User: What shape does this take?
Amino acid sequence: MKKVSFYTVGCKLNFAETSTIGEEFKKRGFEIVEFGEPSDVCVINTCSVTEYADRDCRRAVRKALKVSPNAFIIVTGCYAQLRPDEIAQIEGVDLILGSNEKFKIFDYVGDFQKNYHTQIFISPVTETNEFYIASSTPASDRTRAFLKVQDGCDYNCSYCTIPLARGGSRSPEIAVVVERAKTLAQLGYKEIVLSGVNVGDYGRKIGTNLFELVKELEKIDGIERIRISSIEPNLLSEEMIDYFVNSEKICNHFHIPLQSGSDEILRKMRRRYNTTLYRKRIEYIKEKDPEACIGADVIVGFPGETREHFETTYNFINDLPISYLHVFTYSERPNTDAVNLPDKVSMDERHRRSEMLRNLSLKKKNSFYRQMIGKVFDVLWESEVKDGMMFGFTKNYVKVKIKYEPSLVNKITPVKIVDVEDLVAVGEIVKD
Assistant: This one.
């Protein structure tokens, strides 16, 4: 039996897509092995968001070939779509597939015999109109499944390469998503995470919306939690918030990209909201549900971001009841408008600001977790074990640990939060 391994960089969407590609290999008799183990084929699914795409790809190719010198190396994903000629210069790469080709690997290769000649199949993103449903699978050994419900983006943020790599926004019909979610429920998943490039834009071009989708997903037996990976503040209405926080299945966990707390920088980024709207959304969520978890993405060091702009961002975030941050250091991406903006911020200053916000994130997360002490939550336990402890998550995305009990894996149990250690809540099982 031939073996295949996978290496994935980037977002949860990439991981869901890799998992779906893996299912195609399994159907054709391949055994999936861990990346770094000997394999006949290695698929590298790349990302283009940061400046390290080239470095990550080269390292992955080298690692794969070190253990399997004759492995057939396939590189796909956003970086492959945008910079195929750069990847073709990496010794040992056999096949490069674009965003529209990644789900058709078997259309482009037959016996996977290495011939030391790189082939490239990349179609323009303007021709990328198909939607390929994707989700994580039991091979990922998780109790939460990431379900891709949207792809591409019609926004034109000045710093972002995703529309260039994935094309325009597109979504499957509700029935298609529901059918995949039912399959995941049958496989034993209790929680699905709705993923995409711009999840809040789901259904806009096919006459429906995210609101209608989640209402249908709630009806599925076996799916006990629905988590939304991320949603833009301008696409999150008060009506949706009201429904979400009162739903038995939808998690009270909102990840709402901010990017900057300065309206001037937001305009340069071409974001579709301002800080007034953002604050309104955050405060409304907390008014309706004080226990809701709210995460935010922030980019620091964008061209033209002065120290005053950064201080405005820092103070804006500090004043809001945000639970944690994902902090990104701005990196110049080819073919984006931001590359040509003046007043670049030095790399040392970018890293200094990133560190400040990451420290703020730790403080906010610790504060949020400590607010949960003494309260009881339902926890979905995962299979991860470390130092004799197992871990799980509440609906509001608090990570909890207890002493390992194998019978609890993929079970939901009531737990009282008694302490917080190293940004993990310590729980006690509540007995009947």
Observations:
- The CA atoms of residues 225 and 232 lie 21 Å apart.
- The chain has 13 helices and 18 strands.
- The radius of gyration is 22 Å.
